[in-house]
Amino acid sequence: MILLRRYLIYLILVILVATGxxxxxxxxYPSIGFVKNDIWRVLPSPGxxxxxxxxxxxxxxxxxxxxAKPEAAYFxxxxxxxxxxxxxxCSYKLTGEDIEAKWWAIxxxxxxxxxxxxxxxLYSFNSENIDFNFEGGFEVYFTNDDAFxxxxxxxxxxxxxxxxxxxxxxxxxxxxxxxxxxxxxxNLPIVEKIRCLDE
Amino acid sequence: xxxxxxxxxxxxxxxxxxHLLFISVFPQLKAWSISxxxxxxxxxxxxxQRDLAxxxxxxxxxxxxxxxxxxxxYDVTYKPLIISTQVPSTYWSVSFFSQNTDNxxxxxxxxxxxxxxxxxxxxxxxxxxxxxxxxxxxxPSNRGLMxxxxxxxxxxxxxxxxxxxxxxxxxxxxx
Lengths: 199, 175
Description:
Shape of chain B: globular
Oligomer: heterodimer
Distance between the termini of chain B: 66 Å
Strand order of the largest sheet of chain B: 1-2-8-4-5
Shape of chain A: globular
Strand content of chain A: 25-35%
Number of helices of chain B: 2
Largest sheet of chain B: 5 strands, antiparallel
Number of domains of chain A: 2
CATH superfamily of the largest domain in chain A: Domain of unknown function DUF1214, C-terminal domain
Helix content of chain B: 25-40%
CATH architecture of the largest domain in chain A: Sandwich
């Protein structure tokens, strides 16, 4: 009985240590697994068969059926150019240039990673439905401020959630093999804060 | 080394091994949970269609609002699966995910330029026969998932895309 109790304590300790390792790897993985490009983060091989076990586990939780390269690249950002978290309290402007690929899309997600509820039923802009400016670039605004929306002279805006922070993703499909060897330096859109409701 | 330190060391090593096992098995568990949902809905080896994602779509984290999805969970333990569909003029892809969620194959417009697509999906232990009317894909696991993605573009061809989605068929050979 005493022996059984001792082994049970060992088992609990082993499980606790395993849980600790899993927690630490969950916390550390984003800073070592992702490639950083300005405000954007991207996994170099999200769906590939030769990815490491940590990437496989992370992707299965946060993007279960991600495609392997060179089919698609999935960039995400949760901060603006000043490295502050994207807040539903503020309005932002994303500025970018067209990207050489079959198509691309910019999508806004709430803090749980789901599409944000909005009356407009607008969740994203893609390379075929976005309004480009005269220089061939584009702007997209993220806001939950109706006064700000009324002032806008641009149909490219997405409503951010009513509360908490949010994130954006940029999906790029069939960008070519070379794209993936240059993930750190590709010219991607920037996001800057315009104003906040409490300012 | 004292007996106490030895025990601590062994517990840490065992804990790390259990952690690695959990991390390795986690994707399979995730895929198993999804395929269980699919089989409860009778969707194994049967095509399913999904509406465009919106704010009510909470099955998958970070869904795409620009892709129309169809697909089928598969089990090719005993027979190959035949997948056939029309394909649109916009971007499309048919991608295969093994039981550990690896994307082991993708067929897209770069491979098939016609309007119709046919794929024979074989299991890991089968010997694929030659086919003249489609692509052969060999899955590294008996069970997995096939997903067809269609790009909605500016939304002007929704009807065409939904019609194409309805043409997707997944049937076991000989059934």
